[in-house]
Prior knowledge:
The structure holds two protein chains of two kinds.
Chain A: H1 2-31, E1 34-35, E2 41-42, H2 48-53, H3 56-89, H4 94-102, H5 109-120, H6 125-132, H7 146-171, H8 174-182, H9 187-198, H10 200-215, H11 219-224, H12 232-240, H13 246-274
Antiparallel strand pairs in A: 1-2
Chain B: H1 7-13, E1 20-31, E2 34-45, E3 49-53, H2 60-68, E4 75-80, E5 83-84, E6 95-98, H3 110-121, H4 127-140, H5 156-168, E7 174-178, H6 186-203, E8 206-211, H7 214-220, E9 223-228, E10 231-236, H8 238-243, H9 248-254, E11 258-260, E12 263-265, E13 270-273, E14 282-292, E15 296-303, E16 308-314, E17 325-330
Parallel strand pairs in B: 3-8, 3-9, 6-7, 7-8
Antiparallel strand pairs in B: 1-2, 1-4, 4-5, 9-10, 11-12, 13-17, 14-15, 14-17, 15-16
Helix pairs in contact in B: 3-4, 3-5, 4-5
Amino acid sequence: MKQLRAWFLTPAYLVMATLFAAPMLIICAYSLLSRGPYGGVMRPWTLEAYTRVLNPLYAAIVWRSVWISGVATAACLALGFPLALFLSRARGRRTLLLNLVMLPFWTSFLIRTYAWMFLLRDTGLVNTVLQGLHVISAPLPLLFNDGAVILGLVYGYLPFMVLPLYATLEKQDPSVVDAAQDLGASPWVAVWTVVIPLARPGMFAGAILVFIPCLGSYLTPDLLGGGKTVMIGTLVQNQFTTARDWPFGAALSLLVMALVLVFLRMAARRQETML
Amino acid sequence: MVSRLPRAFALALWNPTVNTVLALDALSKHYPAQRAVDGISLCIQKGEFFSLVGPSGCGKTTTLRLVAGFETPTSGDILLDGQSVIGLPPYQRDVSTVFQSYALFPHLTVEKNVAFGLERRRPGVTGSEIAKRVQGVLELVQLSGKENRLPQQLSGGEKQRVALARSLVLQPKVLLLDEPLSALDPKLRKQMRDELKKLQRSVAITFLFITHDEAEALSLSDRMAVMHRGLIEQLGTPRELYSQPATRFVAEFLGGVNWVGGTAIRPECMRISAAGPEGVRCFRATVTSATFLGNSVQISTRLDNGSTCVVEASAGVEGFRPGDTVHVWWNPRDEMPLKDDGAAGGGVES
């Protein structure tokens, strides 16, 4: 029995070792080496990459990534909560509506992001229509700014907020909301005092699922931010390509991971104190 | 059936007085597939313990939800203290519900669960007064010392008490109870039943109690109504309904019924012995089975005319075995004034 167990676990251990542990070790090693003249790394061992992370120029980019991700997460929550509440209360069409939430996943994220570029650019659909209606005389600057990046992130990660929220809301006993109304709470007050507090685990799960990929996102800020809005992902990519500074890129990657772990830890702590 | 009598007679039953706290006037709730409530009228007096009893699907829970405001009636009126509450949302009606599932707020302590209604319904009541009233009602339901527990840390009976306290603390004009005892195990249920009755007497709040359990309704109610297919089959005191049922459905829903020679008689009103006294109400029978129930013996017999008859005798009665020839008889005074009209239809529980 025990032997069988070991056999079944072997593939998983192999996958974790070759695809997770080994790359992590390589990144750690790279971050402690010196940059090679044409990319790559060479000796001697040094902590120089880590000291550069503290440079105010890069700290600003890290901070920018955090607040853009935070705003995107908050927007996902604000948009996703009413949607999830509606889904959890829709009886007959629930399966259809849930499938619609997941429908965008059927198309490549890259293509969907390009679609936004076509909508938002100066000669795009939005500006063309508004100009055609004489609402505006010159095209609005919709693309290549922070707003466009946040829009793209919210669009891309909204389902990750809706699905865990839906899962917790759907489990709620509807008679609890009846009870709140019975005891004098208007529907709004009932949502505020009962539905939202009971949905907190789902809100945390959704926030984590949205915030983490936002923080490390590369495609959205690169395409919709037009290189002007630099987030950590873009910075890391630059180090491995044009800047040819692999140790610094590796150090930045580890920094993102450390940030994520800190946020996860904080979220876990919050949930423990709530229960 | 009573509810299908001419309108004039129905009105005679429906006579609101100064003591009436809740009146339903020809209240109906029709769904596309079903007439859940089909024009019921009744008046509940102040301080009364009134039960609506019937099999599942009879419309009793819909009636409660109509009174609480969770459903909108198709037609008819609901008067609370003489004022129509049609169109008022649940949070503006001075009634409160104890839900079947208790529906406690799982994220709030016992104390905050109970204070929830006071904080929203009674804006004049200040913080210290709220705390005082919460303490008072928790004492009443014997939950002092459990103020800071969360619902998940309570037993079924304790949750039940919190649900009661949460509604009682508001002192509503009518307390609506939706099968509040059905989630408890049988022993606890009987204990809570007694406590509920005591509680109702001490707080003097009108209770509208919904149940499918005829024993609960009979033992708790001042008056009760038996519902069947969205209609009130009969309304009266438990004693009246049990001993003078108006319809076969009521008779069979509230207890066992034997049909012997065209008359209806309760099993516990029947007598059994080896040699019966002479008389018209005495029948010769053969015992088919005898079941010892602790405080009584249930003896099934087949009469010589072929019909079956169940006798519930006191446990002290001499032992009868299957195959014994016996005589069954009864006092004509105990006969129920019922015709064997076969009107009971499906879904009879006995």
